[in-house]
């Protein structure tokens, strides 16, 4: 949280600095320029006006920067009575401050004579030293800046907290998915090992390759779509080794390029679900058809699988988790359709690619 606050402070200090420079320097020069152009019928501003605006703009900037710190501290915290007391004190000291700066400017020998005379007149002028109308203008402008930054900072903090919450939830969902995936795959290896099947070693090799992908890629926010498809292809090959010719398995990937990115392990649960909950109990008539198609703007996944007889339920923790991940990662940017007619289970997923 300290790091976030430091980031916010740096960002908003730049905004504050730009505001004060514009307000107390640029606008003063523009006002004089406009007055000279329209009223005096001359372009540009004199050396005296430049000198005057720089000196009194700097003195006003320093005073109102202090006032701005008061606004930030008490207005935002809704301590109004303390704020009003500080404003009254500021008005008193601001009058003294303006007289003191005018006296100082009147006695600085390196300033122009016209500037020193003007400062002396302001020092000797029998008044509080400022216009209440102008002071109120400054008050409202600076108060608006303080309130704007306060609201924007709160919105940024809420946004970051939401992002952190989403990251934590995604991490949790991935943590659930990975043990679930390995549990299913190890079951496959265990079944082949009991049969002393010659395909056990190739299956272990494929699993090792998939484990390497999960260990090094699963924690990344986005991975190469090409790598993700290769991982899925390895998974399908593992299932091919397991079922061999008993089940009709088809896998086709089209339009996969090297530049597209996708959240890791996002497509796997749909494919894993087709094998785990669709044809696991089939012996000779089951099928799984997988088509992944990438266009310029969309990625489409189509999975069709037969449903084993007497299979009462399809879907599992992986499918539940991936639906949650889709809601988090692709809000209003995905379309998921699932159909089940008790004989064929169909999944159609369309993603707007990031």
UniProtKB/TrEMBL annotation:
InterPro entries hit by this protein: Bact_2-comp_sensor_kinase (IPR050640), HATPase_C_sf (IPR036890), Sig_transdc_His_kin_internal (IPR010559)
Gene3D superfamilies per UniProt: Histidine kinase-like ATPase, C-terminal domain
Transmembrane segments: 12-30, 50-68, 80-108, 128-149
Pfam family, any one: His_kinase
GO molecular function, one term: phosphorelay sensor kinase activity
Signal transduction histidine kinase internal region domain: residues covered: 169-245
One of the record's GO cellular component terms: membrane
Keywords associated with the record: Membrane, Transmembrane, Transmembrane helix
Protein name: Signal transduction histidine kinase internal region domain-containing protein
Native source species: Pedobacter polaris
């Amino acid at each position: 949280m300290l790091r976030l606050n430091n980031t916010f402070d740096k960002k908003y200090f730049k905004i504050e600095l730009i505001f004060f420079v514009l307000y107390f320097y640029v606008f003063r020069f523009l006002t004089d320029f406009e007055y000279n152009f329209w009223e005096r019928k001359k372009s540009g501003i004199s050396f005296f006006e430049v000198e005057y605006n720089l000196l009194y703009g700097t003195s006003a900037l320093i005073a109102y920067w202090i006032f701005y710190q008061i606004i930030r501290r008490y207005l935002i915290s809704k301590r109004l009575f303390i704020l009003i007391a500080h404003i009254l004190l500021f008005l008193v000291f601001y009058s003294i401050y303006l007289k003191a700066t005018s006296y100082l400017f009147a006695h600085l020998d390196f300033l122009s004579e016209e500037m020193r005379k003007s400062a002396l007149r302001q020092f000797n002028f029998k008044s509080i030293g400022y216009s209440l109308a102008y002071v109120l203008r400054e008050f409202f402008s600076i108060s608006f800046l303080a309130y704007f930054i306060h609201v924007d900072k709160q919105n940024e903090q809420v946004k970051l907290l939401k992002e952190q919450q989403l990251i934590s939830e995604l991490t949790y969902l991935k943590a659930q998915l990975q043990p679930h995936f390995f549990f299913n795959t190890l079951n496959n290896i265990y079944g082949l090992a009991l049969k002393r099947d010659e395909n056990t070693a190739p299956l272990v090799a494929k699993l090792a390759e998939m484990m390497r992908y999960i260990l090094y890629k699963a924690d990344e926010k986005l991975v190469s779509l090409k790598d993700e498809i290769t991982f899925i292809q390895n998974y399908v090959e593992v299932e091919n080794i397991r079922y061999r010719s008993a089940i009709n398995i088809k896998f086709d990937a089209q339009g996969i390029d090297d530049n597209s990115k996708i959240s890791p392990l996002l497509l796997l649960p749909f494919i894993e679900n087709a094998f785990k909950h669709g044809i696991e109990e089939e012996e000779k008539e089951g099928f799984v058809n997988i088509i992944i198609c990438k266009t310029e703007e969309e990625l489409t996944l189509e999975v069709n699988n037969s449903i084993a007889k007497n299979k009462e339920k399809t879907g599992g923790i992986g499918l539940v988790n991936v639906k949650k991940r889709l809601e988090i990662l692709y809000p209003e940017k995905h379309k998921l359709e699932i159909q089940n007619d008790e004989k064929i289970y169909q999944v159609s997923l369309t993603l707007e690619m990031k």
